[in-house]
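Example 3.2
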Amino acid sequence: MKTDVVKPQEIFYNPTRLLVPLFQRPYVWTQEMQWEPLWQDIVRLTDVLSKHDQSATHFLGAIVVQREETGLGALQSWNVVDGQQRLTTLQILLDAVHSEVARRGFANHAARLQPLVENPASMCVAPEDRFKLWPTYKDRDSFAAVMAAEPPIDYDAIEASRLRDAHRFFAGETAAWLDAGDHDSQQRAHLLVSALTERLEIASIRLDPQEDAQAIFETLNARGTPLSSADLIKNFVFQQIPSEDAHRAYADYWEQFETPWWEAVVTSGRIKNTRASLFLWQWLVARTRDDFPIREVFTQFKHYAATSEGGVAVLLPQVRRAAERYREVIEGATQPSGELTREQLFTYRMAALNSDIARPVVIWLDESEQAHIPSEERARFFDVLESWFVRRVLVKAPSQGGNRAMVDLLRHLSDEAGDGIADAVSSFLASSEARASYWPDDREVRAALTGAKFYSAYRQSIQRMLFEAIEDAKRGYPSGRRLAMGPVIRGKATIEHLMPQKWRKNWPAVLTEHEQAERELRIQQLGNLTIVTQALNTRVSNGSWQVKRTHFLETDDVLMTKDAIKLAAGGEWSERQIEERTSLLIDRVLDLWPVPEGHVARVTGERAASTSASVGLADLVGAGLIQPGTRLIPGGTYFREGVEAEVLVDGNILFDGVSYDYPSSAALAAHKIANALNGWWYWQIAGTETRLSHVRDAYVESRAKSAAGN
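Structure, written as C-alpha cells:
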C-alpha cells in the first residue's frame, strides 16, 4: 500500500483507466449537497490564490484504488475501491471547464485539461478506453454521452441524467465566473485551470493486486457515508475495551445495533437519525435526566461514561438490556390485532399522536432501578401520562418545550420515594402552569371539541386512535370485562360520516342557505363520525340513512355505531342527533383520559396563538368586540320566536332573569330539549347573522397575529 497526497494532474495525466466495479452504487451526488459546496470551495481557492497566498491548496478527501495486472503496452488499469463519487465528479468538473475554455478559443488552457479527461487515441483499443474513468454499468451511457459532447454542448439533446445535470451545472458556473470580475476571461481561465490541476489535493491510497482491498474499504468508512452517533459511540466504546475482550463484548452487547431494524433511518420531530442513534439519545436522557439535543449525544455519552462508576464495562450491559426492551415494546405496539400490554398500547397511541418525546420516561420506567414498581402502578402511570398527551393534542396546546417537560418530569419522579409514581406524575402535571406542560381540564377539552370540525381539524391517525379507544372501552379493553369479539383492529379502520359529505342527493331537506351552511359544519363534527372495519362502497357510504342503518345493523360489528343508531330511535339521523352524540362522545373522551378530581388548568402568561378553548365571553367584552347590553337570539335552525338573552358587563349572559357563566349554560336553559349545546354557535347577535363563535374566532386570530409579531 502506498499513500500520497496528490494533485488531479498526477492522478489523471498519464494514460490510465480507473474502473468502478459493477457492485458499486451509481452516481448519487447532488447540486445542493455536493456540487455547489465544491464549486464554492474552488471559487474561494482562486480568490486566495489571486490575492493572498499563491501556495494555497484545497483538500478534496481520499480515494482508494487497486492496481490490476495488465499486459505489456496496455493502459494501466485501477479498480476504484473507495471515492468513486469524488473521482466521477472531478472528471465531470474538469471536462465542463474544458468545454467552456475551448468554446472561448483559449487553446493553451484547453490543452492543459485535455490529457486529464481523455487518453491518447494511440492507447485506446475499445471506444471506452478514451475516458480516464469508466463508471459502473448504470452510469456508462450517460457518462459517455456528456463527456464526448463537443462544445458548445447542447445539453437538451443529451438524455436526462444526474451526470448530465452535473456537467451542465459546472459548465454554467464556469461560464459565469470567467465572464465576471476585473480581469479578462483569459486571465481568469489561466487562474481557474491552474487551481484545478495544481492546487486541489487528494489523499491517494494505492494498493497492489495482492492486498486486501475490502479491509481498507471498511476501515475508511466506505462510500463517504457520514458516521452516525451510534457509530461514533461504538468506536469510542471499543477503544476503551482491551483488544482481547473486544470481540466478545461486540458479540454480546453491540452486534444487534448493526442489523436492519436498528440501522433504519427514522424521524423524530423534524430530524432523521438511525434508530440506534435515536435510542442511545433517549436512553442517555433517561439516565442523565438532562435536556440536550441529539446532535450532542456522542459528547454527552463520553462524559457520562467517564463519570460513571465502572465506565463502559458497566454501561454496555445496561445499554443492551434497555435496547432489547425498547425493541420489544415498539415492535409489540405495531401488532394490528390482539390485546397489547399497557406499555405497548401507550406506545401505539403516542405514535398515532406523532409524538416520541415520552420515550425517555418509558425507558426510565423499564430500568432495573424501577423493577420494584408493581404492574398495576405502572398501568396507572401510563393512564395518567396518556391523558396528558391526548388532552393537549385535542386542545392543540403548543408542542414547543415538550422535551424539556419530560426531563422535568423525570427529575421529579427520580426524587420521589416509594412506589406511588402514578400519583407523583399526576400531581406534577396537574400543578404545572407552563404552556409547554399544563394539563387541559374538562372544560377546555369540551370547549375545543364541541362544535369543532373534527374531521378536518385533526390528523386521521388521531381520529382513528380516539375512536379505537372509545370502541375498545365498550368491548372491555384495556381493562374491565372483555367481550368475546376482542379489541378493534388497530390502524386499519376507516373514518366514516354517518350523514355523508355528499348529503344533498340522498338526504333531501328544505333548508335555507344559512341552514345548509350549518349542516355542512355539522357533518364534520365528532358526533357524525364513526369507524368501520371495512371501507363502505360508494352506494352505502353516500346512501340514505335507512341504507346505512341497515348495513350497520346487519354487517358491521362496531358497537359505538350501534349506539349512534339507537339515538335516532327509528327516525332520521339529523343535526339534533349529531349534536347529542357529540356531547356523549366528549363525555367518553373525558372518562377515558381523566384528570384529577376538581382539576382546573391554570396557565401563566400568554398562550401562544390562543386557542378558542382559552377564550371566554368576558374577553370579548373586555376587548370591545361585544358591548354590554348586546341582545342575543338563537341562530339558524335553533331560532324560536320570543327567545332572547342579553350580554352583561362581566361577560355573563342574562336569560329569563338568570345570569349564566357560559354561553352553553344559557343555551341549554333556552333550548331545554337538548342534552348539550355549543352555546358559541347557538347564540347569534340580534339583527345580524354573526354568532358568538364568529366573534371569538376573529379575536383568537388577532391574538395569534399579535403574538407572532404581525
